[in-house]
Amino acid sequence: MRRYISFNLIHHLRDEALKCNQWNFNRSKYLQHRFDLYATLNCQDGNGHSGCVNALDFSSDGIFLASGGDDKRVVLWNMTDTLFDASYRPPTTLTATHLSNIFSIKFDNQNRRIISAVKSLIIHRGLNSGHADELVDVFLESSPVNCLSVQPQQNDVFIAATEDGHVHLYDLRSASSAAEHDQPSTVV
């Protein structure tokens, strides 16, 4: 009976690459850079969050990452600078601090707005080239909001899932003030 020795080309090439000193150097440098990046997500120096991070969302082009957490702040990270630029630039903290922990955050499809949810408030802010923010609207919910989602084809439409089991539909084109949003359309 002949015994066949299997040969996996992918594993062979990987093993050969690991033997190369140049690749090992680049790999360790890359891993150290990634570790440094993770360390900045939760730090006490004001450049990251000072508490647990509960919500993350990438912009549709993948350039920005929005994070929100127990420190009641939304932090906007430029991933291109963070991952590929040798000179580290700290992330942007959006000016308005929330009243409680942030549990959901979403970019709109055109990366012009960030919608975040805390307890029974939904905060809608406009972004100016991803570097400055302005409070656009505040929506009141009767129950804590657990999840947000922006409609892929309609940039002005988003839904909010609340703790009481309802899903509410918001259309930003329908009204200009928070008072007019007291009764959103209940979808489910």
From TrEMBL:
Question: What PROSITE patterns does the record tag this protein with?
Answer: WD_REPEATS_1, WD_REPEATS_2, WD_REPEATS_REGION
Alphabetical list of SMART domains matching this protein:
WD40 (SM00320)
Classification via Pfam families: WD40
Q: Which InterPro entries match?
A: DCAF8, WD40/YVTN_repeat-like_dom_sf, WD40_repeat_CS, WD40_repeat_dom_sf, WD40_rpt
Record has Repeat as a keyword: yes
Cite the entry's keywords alphabetically: Repeat, WD repeat
Q: Name one GO cellular component term.
A: Cul4-RING E3 ubiquitin ligase complex
Q: Where are the WD repeats?
A: 46-79
Q: Which processes are annotated in GO (biological process)?
A: negative regulation of fatty acid biosynthetic process
Question: Which positions, given as ranges, span the membrane?
Answer: none
Q: Does the keyword Cell membrane apply?
A: no
* Protein name in the entry: Uncharacterized protein
Q: Which organism is it from?
A: Rotaria socialis
